[in-house]
Amino acid sequence: MSKFVRSILFAFVAMSVLLAACGTPATTTPATVIQTQVVVQTPTADASAPTALPDGSVQINAAGATFPYPLYAQWTFAYQYVDPSVVINYQGIGSGGGKSAIIANTVDFAGSDSALSDQNYTDGKDLQMYPIVASAVVPIYNIKFTAPAATAGKGTPTPTAAPLPKLVLDRQTLVDIYNAKVKTWNDPEILNTNPGLKDVLPNAPITAVHRSDGSGTTNIFTAALTSFSKDWTAGAAQTVQWPVDKAGNGVGGKGNAGVAASVINTPNSIGYVEISYAVSNSLPFADLINKSGKKVTANAASLAADMSDFGTAFDKHLVASIVDGSGEGSWPISGYTYMILHTTSMQDCVKASKIIEFLKWALTDPAASKQAATLGYAVLPGDVQKTVLAKLGEVTCSGQPVK
Fold first, then answer.
1. pLDDT truncated to tens, each residue of the chain (403 aa)?
2. 157 lies in a domain?
3. Which of 23, 43, 310, 378 is the most exposed place for a label (fewest CB within 10 A)?
4. What is the CATH number of the domain that holds 48?
5. Domain-located, residue 321
């Protein structure tokens, strides 16, 4: 990240935190800064590079999922105003990279959008996952709409076209697009849910963009496709064999940023990203017809509705799938993003305490919650938050509870 971009983001976060502390809502435009991070920045895997710090400071190194990276970028900078002794360096290298790093003890905590495997738990010895926020995976698109037929008579100025309605997809159509069954934008399946776009959707091939790397975002997306239709047979995982690749209309992009960039640069394409990447790049994203047959938009309210469908139905590692909820207002492609900690083997008890303090701030502080909502994330419902905080209370260092 350039010093210029860092200074802008730093100033923005400082103003947000100070205004929140005074009880005055901050009027900010974080998307401009995040756009630079999302599209331009390519995080590296070296999350443990030493940085000169003032005496008494604590540096916490972390790495993992790109799904929450825009939020973590804001939180970690903002937290320096909450506790100036702490510098948190989070590198967005993907969920798989984060898991490997925490198991190898090269980071202090990791981010992931998908569950650790049984072997991961064996190798990591004392790992625990903690849901932090939920977010939506959204279908972004770049359609070159055709011009509607002229309606004005000769010598009469053509009326200014009204804004086009948002693309709407049902669950089966999204499956059919990634199965390469629906191949053009004016396919009857798409026209069926988009009568207002009938005259402008082009007879153009659909390019379906997907992640080229193993990712928690793909895990959430493919889990949703699996739930949407028995026709999706590629499975739900961090990596799958994409039918669109076999059909010749699939394109891979590395990270959420790579998928967003591919859609931006590819006319008549569709892809899937975590919602903040769509918002920060001003990319339109489709509404969906959910399991209850209702049209929903991805936002904090539809994420909260989806989380409420599943409540506290976690496994012992606090992992839960929240795709395809049954509520009328639920966004169907949703997922938790998690932080992963060692629970008994952290050697530096001061650092361990600082990590727990940061996580509690992220989960409970109103300013942190506001930053999450601004970027399209949904904070945990009260009962889920209590469950996570209680689990954090079980972390020990040198045999003593970390406080």
1. 443 334 334 343 343 433 333 333 333 323 222 222 333 333 333 444 444 556 668 999 999 998 899 999 999 999 999 999 999 999 999 898 999 999 999 999 999 999 999 999 999 999 999 999 999 999 999 999 997 644 444 444 444 456 789 999 999 999 999 999 999 999 999 999 999 999 999 999 999 999 998 888 999 999 999 999 999 999 999 999 999 999 999 999 998 999 999 999 999 999 999 998 898 888 999 999 999 999 999 998 999 999 999 999 999 999 999 999 999 999 999 999 999 999 999 999 999 999 999 999 999 999 999 999 888 899 999 999 999 999 999 999 999 999 8
2. no
3. 23
4. 3.40.190.10
5. no
pTM: 0.79
Residues 143 and 119 in one domain: no
Q: What is the DSSP string of 333-361?
A: SEEEEEEEEESS--S-HHHHHHHHHHHHH
Q: Nearest-5° angle of CA 167, CA 169, CA 172?
A: 165
Query: Which runs of E-coded beta strand occur in 143-246?
Result: 168-170, 207-211
Locus of tokens 């903002």: 78
